[in-house]
Amino acid sequence: MDDSTAPAGLEELARLVRRASQELDRAIAACLGDMSVANWHVLGAVADGVGRPMSHLAEATLLTGASLTRLIDAMISDNLVHRKVDDTDRRRVLVFPTRRGLLAYQVMNRALAERGLDALAADHGRMARSLAAMVDILHAEPATT
User: How far is CA 86 from CA 14, 54, 94, in A?
Assistant: First the structure.
């Protein structure tokens, strides 16, 4: 790609990545029914039973601040997660799954598998590794010329 087509190629790449993200979220949401994709991300982050701080959940959901707090509050109201003050750092609050949350997460994952969406990750993560590499490149320091 020469210098004259590079901006057009970059625009197309940005559109394709965004469209792929939107389509993936749409397909996942269609499988989850009443649950949101963000609920699925939170439950996935806490499914191992180890409490996670809000900063970790912000990374998992791509939500921050008030939006993340509202999501967690709603999930607490639905008895999917609960909060607990961190025993090692009393300033931090950790989010844990409830039994109902773990069962809901299992149901969500079964629905995704029945729809075949889990097959997107079945190629040993090749697509995920490629996207992670792209994110790493974009986060890297720009080269100086």
Answer: 40, 12, 6
Q: Which helix (H) or strand (E) covers residue 96, if one does?
A: strand 93-97
Please name each of the domains of the chain with its CATH number: 6-139 (1.10.10.10)
Please give the helix or strand (H or E) that residue 26 lies within, else none.
helix 6-32
Q: How many CB atoms lie within 10 A of CB 98?
A: 17
Is the pTM higher than 0.70? The answer reads yes
Q: Which two tokens stand for residue 7?
A: 């901006």
Q: Is the Cβ–Cβ distance between 31 and 111 less than 8 Å?
A: yes
Three-state DSSP class for residue 79 = coil
The alpha-helical segments, DSSP class H, found in 33-125 are 37-46, 54-61, 65-77, 99-115
Q: Measured on CA atoms in the order 133, 53, 107, 29, is the torsion positive or negative?
A: negative
Could you read off the pLDDT of 69-127 as tens digits, one per residue?
A: 999 999 999 999 999 999 999 889 999 999 999 999 999 999 999 998 888 777 657 77
> Please, are residues 86 and 56 in contact by the beta-carbon 8 Å criterion?
no
